[in-house]
Specification:
The complex is a heterodimer of chains A (421) and B (339). Chain A is built from 14 helices and 14 strands. Chain A has 421 residues and is α/β, with parallel strands linked by helices. Chain A folds into 2 domains: 209 residues, Rossmann fold; 136 residues, Rossmann fold, CATH 3.40.50.2300. The radius of gyration of chain A is 21 Å and the shape is elongated. Chain A starts with a helix and ends with a helix. The N terminus of chain A is likely disordered. Chain B is mainly α and 339 residues long. Chain B has a single domain, classed as ABC transporter involved in vitamin B12 uptake, BtuC (Orthogonal Bundle), CATH 1.10.3470. Chain B is built from 14 helices and 4 strands. In chain B, the strands form 2 sheets. In chain B, strands 1-4 form a two-stranded antiparallel sheet. In chain B, strands 2-3 form a two-stranded antiparallel sheet. The longest helix of chain B has 27 residues. Classes of the chains: A alpha/beta (421), B mainly alpha (339). At the A-B interface, helix 1, strand 9, helix 10 and helix 11 of A face helix 2, helix 11, helix 12, helix 13 and helix 14 of B.
Chain lengths: 421, 339
Amino acid sequence: MTHRRHVVAVSALAGAALLLSACSTGQNSGANTSGSTSSSSSSSSSSEMSSSASAPSSSGASSGSSMASGSSATSGSSSGGGSGSVPPAIAAAGGTELLSAALPQGVEAQYGPVCKGSDLGIGKIDFKTDTVGWAQSEKEANPFRIASTASEVAEAKKRGIKLLTTNAQSDAQQENTDIKGMIDKGAKAIIFSPINSTGLGDAIAYAKSKKVAMIPVDRNITGVKGCQEVGPQLGSDFVLQGKLAADAMIKATGGQANLAILLGASGVNVTDDRTTGFLDELKAKKADGIKVIFQQTADFTREKGKSVTETLLQAHPDVNAIYAENDEMALGALAALDDKGMAGTDKVHIVSIDGTKGAVQAIVDGNIDAVIESNPAFGPYAFDALDAYVNGDGAPAVTITKDNQYDKSNAQQALDSGTAY
Amino acid sequence: MTATLPSEETTPAPRSPRFRRPARWTEFLRRYGVYLALLLLVLYNVVLTPHYLQWSTVTLLFSQLPPVLIVSMGMAMVIGTGGIDLSVGSTMAIASAVMAKLVAPESSHGLGYPIAVAIVVGLLAGLAVGVFNGCVISVARVQPIVATLSFLVAGRGIALVITGGALIELFTPFLGTLRRGTLLGIPYVMLVALVVILVVAVLVAKTGFGYRLLAIGGNLRASVLAGVPVRRTLITVYALSGLLAAIAGILATARLRASDPSYIGLLLELSAITAVVVGGTPLRGGQVRVLGTVAGVVLMQMLQTTLVAHNIPDSVSQMVEALIIIAAVYIQRTSSRSA
């Protein structure tokens, strides 16, 4: 009967693949699927996500993508710079007002209310004796994740703080477990890089019940009221990154191009935000000459970036601009172009997001036009915020860090000074 | 249901009439369905896909196919013995990581060995994984699906440890040649794949080893009683599968100009199994259809290319692929007993 088992096993595997694909379904075409992210990260986590992270009011339950498309609706007008306005992405993360106080170095904007650990009953932390936990969300295989963890570890070392670290290997369930485990081991505060904007409700509720400070970095937790579920949030503005990428693309192409978009992993809010930010900016700048002829996910990986681009070049030989939502995909695309003798910004323009060494080097080599940085080095900000949150006068609910932008003019310098990671 | 070797039972079990189909057309479908599907897909593309009828379509296939083709050849032999090898994707990652670590210059945390040494050691690493699998399966009598599943999980971890978790970029000229070089318009990587296909076809059809392999898949008990060296044959089959996976891993690395152990060969074991099954090789063993497997690989790859070319969302394409797998497995179920 064993062969039958194999048949069952293989069809089960096929079924599993199908399920995976189904739950990572996501947007692909950008804005048109509100609620897609509720099926995001992992199917099993969706239940607990509704339990706590969706919390009181707000559009939080439908999470990232609705937030992204929401921001698209208003950001056009708000980008002009009304002082008190709060972008929807920030509102979803619990920010209610733009703080006008002097900004620390490297910070783009801060949003109130000001959070204090004592509001949630969190006691003071003595960094000489107490332990802090760091939960990384994805495998440290790409430069962004490596730099992200390195920054936290280095900062803890510098301050002489005992740091526990975990890595959830892209599994939301695992990140919940990791965080709860570190709390059980006695961590008084958790700095974590959420795998997604939702899906960590379980760990967040547990931390709240144990009076442990939670500091999300990079991706924000959405659907929360300022400071009531998690502590101060530090993040990049992915919608803004998309917009900057669009601006760079318009500049590089002179507003005339047949453009292909290599989307990030399906069902992740970073992908949604970088897509909507980009497309909205094209519209806002009336860049009608840039035609989006192709949008496919390449899963944030180099391998897929290459194979998808190869097919793209075959089906649409007229493509002359590529927007890659991270550097790895851009480098994959570049490999595909190189094989066809089409590498070089004079033939195909490339704009990508991240700011890794490989991509910045490609700018110097004349193969990529511009790279919008997504700064992974949250360590110093995170520990400052934590200190102010539990021991000091409080920290703003949402802090957006400043991202650099690289092009021909400063790429070499970024490599020399080591700002590209 | 003791945990022994697969495919002990070959006597057809009585079947409920509800599942009985006229054997002839299902058998025809099982044998030639893949060619039919391929023909339909090509016709569809010719009519509906722009820029399809060009030589570049072929060169694109030639550059994307080889890793899957090579892995599928090993998989076809394993399935021929009634087994399965889930570890091939991870084996690719190990071979790639070993090679990258050895050849990368010291400035990027490598060891700076010559490329020839690196490739040979990479291949040996794959071979070692295969031998290990073969031993666990034939000596320790662990079911193939379980034995190789353990390496599916562990192997990628090992690869990540070797490279320190990071992607290693490779600028070795030889890999560039491998990636871009052509002979009579056929890329070197495709030539490697063609040689592998030829060797496997000859092995299976013309040698004693091939005969023993099929005998084991056809009827293990009879093979044992007839004095077939089961252990040796099984270890060889899995070793070959590991070696072929290592070759595929090195080609994939050359293709990407980098060793990315988290993604190289990821889920490739499923693509390979799919190709073998879609190509008409029954999972119960006893048969290996080399040409069908090749057609299966081409079909699945071309399907993916077609869906991407038509800008179909990723999620839909995965569902389409799953449907094809289910159809192929279903056809097998209905006809394999009467074969």
